[in-house]
Amino acid sequence: MKTRNIYILAGLFAFGAFFTGCDDDDDGKAVAITVKNATNLKEDIFGVVVTEDQPVQLNPFVMPESARAGAVSYHFAGEPTGAIDLSADGLITPKLTTSPTGDIPYPLGTDTIIVRVDDGSGTYVKYPIWVVSKIKLVTSITIQSGG
């Protein structure tokens, strides 16, 4: 029984030490940033999906709270492919549209962006942006008699 209590106490200590390291008021801690719009695109790849003709405003979340006062900037990672426009305030506007003929690729096109915290920490994240078609393909049709 004593061994079990020691493991429980050690676990609680480790848990407490983890959350102590996440103190919002400590300017010396590492800065982390995520984009709330990001979703799991496929195995361990997080990115943002935008539908043609439907702009998306990025919504970054920065930790610790003391780092939120600084600006966040948005940039293309490498040369843009032309799939999207990216504004200085994080508005993504898809530029691609679905072709009226032929197959509909998934995604229609991609670009990769960088979201950077401009507080001198050098913290940034990269996200692929997938532009997808607004057309929903029919997978089945049911015919009912009108009799």
From TrEMBL:
This is Uncharacterized protein.
